[in-house]
TrEMBL record:
Residues 139-158 are annotated as: Disordered. Pfam families: Phage_integrase. Belongs to the 'phage' integrase family. This is Integrase. Residues 140-149 have a biased composition (Basic residues). It comes from Saccharopolyspora gloriosae. Residues 152-333 form the Tyr recombinase domain. Gene3D superfamilies: 1.10.150.130, Intergrase catalytic core (1.10.443.10). One of its GO terms (molecular function) is DNA binding. Keywords: DNA recombination, DNA-binding.
């Protein structure tokens, strides 16, 4: 006895079947027979080094410690074994046992980065066709909600106090004042400063080439005074000879992010408000960009910051109101009270910051 129609399925039925299979993460080849069994998936210990070698240096630097934690916890497990609940449990464990730092906010950032590190692993696993998109457990675990930032622009008096302490204390005031001026003029992140090389300096047009997060690269104007100090620093500390990292100690060893940590700890020991409010280098970025936005508008401030995202209505609008390098140079000239080769004119600065 027949249990159904012998009429072949039409186009609509076939399309409906494809949609159902796609939602289930099943391909038509999976239905051909029991012999088409998928090979066992690699373990985290096997797969993490492969992904680490495939990502950029910046991504590796951010996720490396979290991949190590994942490998410690789940190294012998296959990629398809952890559930979304287990991922959430691991994120909470990392959050509760995070190392307490001066700018810690309850471990929320650590939990967020752990989930992001797992999502990176599973994106590669999907691309390698080890799992389907529907089988990605990290995609179903939400990241912790980010709290509003407590950072803001420093007032002119506060910035002057910070610069004074950096210039009169410590074992290398020349280096510390150079760091502060570089970040104040360019609003660059620490990573952008630490990757500077002598060949990133355009002395004729007073530009520095910044390599920052997301593999972004941009030319940023600096004042003639800062350019002179950067060139002198490179010459005196050996960077101009070997072409390596520009910013160095007197010993000619390249500085690391620890120099910033020690700098702000020292400044905080002299200025209690710096320690209390947990002021860091990123506050200088807020300070400069706030001043630029107030005096030259959003488009120039956005370009000054090196923001390139085009998501959302605001991002779409900036396609038509994007500021150019000359406008950034004009804002810098007003900020520093120094002429710049790319600035058509130098507006008089009314107030430095605030």
């Amino acid at each position: 006895m027949s249990t159904g129609s012998d009429k072949p399925a039409g186009a609509a039925e076939l399309q409906a079947a494809r949609v159902v299979l796609e939602r289930m993460g099943v391909s038509p080849q999976d239905l051909l027979g029991p012999s088409a069994q998928r090979a066992p998936l690699p373990t985290f210990a096997d797969y993490i080094p492969k992904v680490s070698a495939a990502v950029s240096q910046g991504t590796r630097r951010v996720y490396d410690s979290y991949w190590k934690r994942i490998e410690q916890q789940w190294g012998d497990r296959r990629l398809d074994e952890p559930t979304p609940l287990e991922i959430k449990q691991l994120a909470e464990h990392v959050r509760e046992h995070v190392v307490s730092r001066r700018n810690a906010r309850g471990g929320r950032s650590a939990a967020e980065h752990l989930i992001a590190a797992l999502r990176c692993l599973y994106r590669h696993a999907v691309a390698d066709e080890l799992i389907s998109e529907a089988e990605n457990p990290a995609k179903r675990v939400p990241k912790p909600r980010r709290l509003p930032s407590t950072r803001r622009g420093l007032p002119a008096t506060g910035l002057e106090e910070v610069q004074r302490i950096a210039a009169t204390t410590g074992n290398d005031p020349a280096l510390d004042t150079l760091l502060l001026r570089l970040h104040t003029e360019t609003a660059c992140r620490r990573g952008g400063a630490l990757t500077l090389r002598p060949h990133d300096l355009d002395a004729d047009q007073c530009l520095v080439l910044l390599h920052e997060k997301g593999d972004t690269v941009r030319w940023q104007p600096v004042s003639p005074t800062l350019m002179w100090h950067l060139l002198a620093h490179a010459e005196e500390r050996g960077a101009s000879v070997d072409g390596g990292q520009l910013l160095r100690y007197r010993s000619r060893a390249p500085i690391t992010s620890r120099r910033y940590d020690h700098l702000w700890k020292r400044i905080g020991s002299h200025l209690p408000w710096v320690a209390t409010q947990q002021i860091s280098t990123h506050w200088l970025r807020h300070t400069t960009l706030t001043w630029v936005e107030r005096h030259f508008g959003y488009a120039v401030a956005r370009a000054f910051a090196g923001h390139t995202s085009t998501s959302g209505d605001t991002g779409t609008t900036t396609t038509y109101v994007r500021a150019n390098l000359d406008e950034i140079a004009t804002a810098l000239a007003a900020l520093t009270n120094e002429p710049h080769p790319l600035a058509p004119s130098t507006p008089r600065r009314e107030q430095q910051h605030g």
